[in-house]
């Protein structure tokens, strides 16, 4: 029997009045579970539950909030293999990456739990005697989290972990491609002991649930990860409410390969960066910008390495790359491949849907490499699939100019053994993240994650200590123990206070 899930509202799984939809394995077509399309009334109930839980949750001490998060991390660690397989069967990333998705949950919940005993503010001198000045973080209120399908447990964990330790109940709306992963995450949070109303889950459409969360008067923050067009809509709608918005909107991430690069290391990084998760990461290495002196050799090596990648069922430990996540995703990627052909880009390898045998029931595309002109669409637009664009650069300055020529600015990378190029890249690449001698993927939870330009128009950073900024505001506190009225800026009393 296929399991039927409900909605998680106010600490309970509830049946829904809405119609149901299926979630399927993108490698095999197997139906994994069914979920409800939440109604507007059910959305209102979830938002009301989060609002109702806020006062008690914010008054729960931050160390105690951290203890419950740490318990959730322990449960995730115990269930890592089981949940990693859920990620792989529902999203399609290979099993090693499925386990990695769950490991990110563990890592960030452990990290966020520690913030419950830090949450540093500032204590600064007053200009007046017998007066103390300090700052503290305060929770903003109930929040809405709208998350994508490519990291179906990790991204909800990044957002929910920061919200929970800050003192903010949440309503989570996951992608309709990966609701099972979100349900499993919520089951763990429930088991860990979060109070009713603090954790809420709604599944359903963007037009009802997504738009409804953004517009709902009870929610004071919206945190969204997804495409630029949808992010712009979220931003504009939330602005009408005058509430905080966190946006992470994708990338077109470059690897620069200088002529002194270690080519074997470069190839390892490019294969993982471009084709890990079938290229479906916002940090995927979608452009390789190669110094003209090594360009021909790199292109030849790329073809050989890409053609050796084993594409197949991602649950198989030997598989290097699984399917893309859905029929729509497959259609989009194949359309971009056709755009490359029509615009005259040179196909180096791949460029087709895989068929026959294990491929017939899934959405499999061959690892694809194009040699691309810097002005063409494959060089400028986010594809979000296993398609790598290779571009030739005259020198370092030309390579940086190409890297910075797109509207995105999430991650970037340079391969070089010359410290001058490495440090100039750190300064000159327009990106929130820069790697040296590593691909554009591999963020660690103790450091800020986010981008510039259209990737990060709200300047939000997830993970690290900056994760709290999205769900808190600063309160400045003045404590005057002088026993008399003192007037800042105009008080002429002596510094002794006499």
Search tags:
alpha/beta, 498 residues, Aldehyde Dehydrogenase, Chain A, domain 2, Aldehyde Dehydrogenase, Chain A, domain 1, seven-stranded mixed beta sheet, 2 domains, 19% strand, five-stranded parallel beta sheet, 14 helices
Give the gist of this structure.
This protein is α/β, with parallel strands linked by helices and 498 residues long. The chain is 37% helix and 19% strand.
Please tell me about this protein's structure.
This protein is an alpha/beta fold and 498 residues long. The chain folds into two domains: 3-249 and 457-476, Aldehyde Dehydrogenase, Chain A, domain 1 (3-Layer(aba) Sandwich), CATH 3.40.605; 253-436, Aldehyde Dehydrogenase, Chain A, domain 2 (3-Layer(aba) Sandwich), CATH 3.40.309. Helices cover 37% and strands 19% of the residues. The longest helix is centred in the N-terminal third of the chain and has 21 residues, at 95-115.
Would you tell me the structural class of the helices and strands?
A: alpha/beta
CATH fold descriptor of the largest domain:
Aldehyde Dehydrogenase, Chain A, domain 1
Shape: globular
Terminal Cα span:
81 Å
Low-confidence stretches: none
Strand content: 15-25%
Task: Tell me the number of helical segments per DSSP (H or I, 4 or more residues long).
Answer: 14
How many domains?
2
Helix content: 25-40%
Quaternary form? single chain
């Amino acid at each position: 029997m296929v399991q039927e899930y409900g909605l998680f509202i106010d600490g309970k799984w509830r049946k829904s009045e809405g119609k149901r939809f299926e979630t399927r394995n993108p490698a095999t077509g197997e139906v994994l579970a069914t979920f409800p399309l939440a109604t507007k009334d059910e959305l209102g109930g979830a938002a009301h539950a989060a609002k109702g839980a806020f006062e008690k949750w914010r008054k729960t001490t931050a160390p105690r909030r951290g203890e419950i998060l740490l318990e959730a991390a322990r449960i995730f660690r115990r269930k890592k293999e089981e949940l990693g397989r859920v990620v792989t069967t529902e999203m399609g990333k290979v099993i090693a990456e499925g386990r990695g998705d769950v490991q990110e949950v563990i890592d960030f919940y452990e990290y966020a739990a520690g913030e419950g005993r830090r949450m540093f503010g500032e204590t600064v001198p007053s200009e007046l005697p017998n007066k103390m000045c300090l700052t503290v973080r305060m929770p903003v209120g109930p929040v809405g989290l709208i998350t994508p399908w490519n990291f179906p447990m990790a991204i909800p964990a990044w957002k929910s972990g920061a919200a929970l330790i800050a003192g903010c109940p949440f309503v989570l709306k996951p992608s309709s491609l990966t609701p099972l992963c979100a349900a499993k995450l919520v089951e763990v949070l429930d088991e860990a002991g979060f109070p009713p109303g603090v954790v809420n889950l709604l599944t359903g459409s963007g037009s009802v649930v997504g738009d409804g969360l953004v517009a709902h008067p009870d929610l004071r923050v919206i945190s969204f990860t997804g495409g630029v067009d949808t992010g712009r809509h979220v931003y504009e709608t939330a602005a009408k409410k005058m509430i905080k918005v966190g946006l992470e909107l994708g990338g077109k991430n470059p690897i620069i390969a200088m002529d002194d690069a270690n080519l074997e290391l470069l190839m390892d990084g490019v294969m993982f960066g471009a084709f890990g998760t079938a290229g479906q990461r916002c940090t995927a290495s979608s452009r390789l910008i190669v110094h003209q002196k090594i360009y021909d050799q790199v292109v030849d090596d790329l073809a050989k390495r890409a053609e050796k990648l084993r594409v197949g069922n991602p649950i198989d430990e030997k598989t290097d790359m699984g399917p893309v996540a859905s029929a729509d995703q497959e259609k989009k990627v194949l359309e971009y491949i056709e755009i490359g052909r029509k615009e005259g880009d040179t196909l180096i390898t791949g460029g087709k849907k895989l068929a026959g045998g294990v491929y017939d029931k899934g959405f499999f595309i061959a690892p694809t490499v194009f040699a691309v002109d810097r002005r063409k669409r494959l060089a400028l637009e986010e594809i979000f699939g296993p398609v790598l664009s290779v571009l030739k650069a005259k020198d370092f300055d030309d390579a940086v100019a190409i890297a910075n020529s797109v509207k995105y600015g999430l991650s970037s990378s340079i391969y070089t053994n010359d410290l001058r190029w490495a440090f100039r890249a750190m300064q000159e690449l327009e990106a929130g993240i820069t790697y040296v001698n590593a691909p554009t993927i591999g963020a660690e939870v103790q450091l800020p994650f986010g981008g510039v330009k259209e990737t990060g128009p709200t300047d939000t950073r997830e993970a690290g200590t900056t994760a709290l900024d999205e769900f808190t505001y600063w309160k400045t506190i003045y404590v005057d123990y002088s026993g008399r009225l003192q007037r800042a800026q105009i008080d002429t009393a002596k510094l002794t206070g006499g």
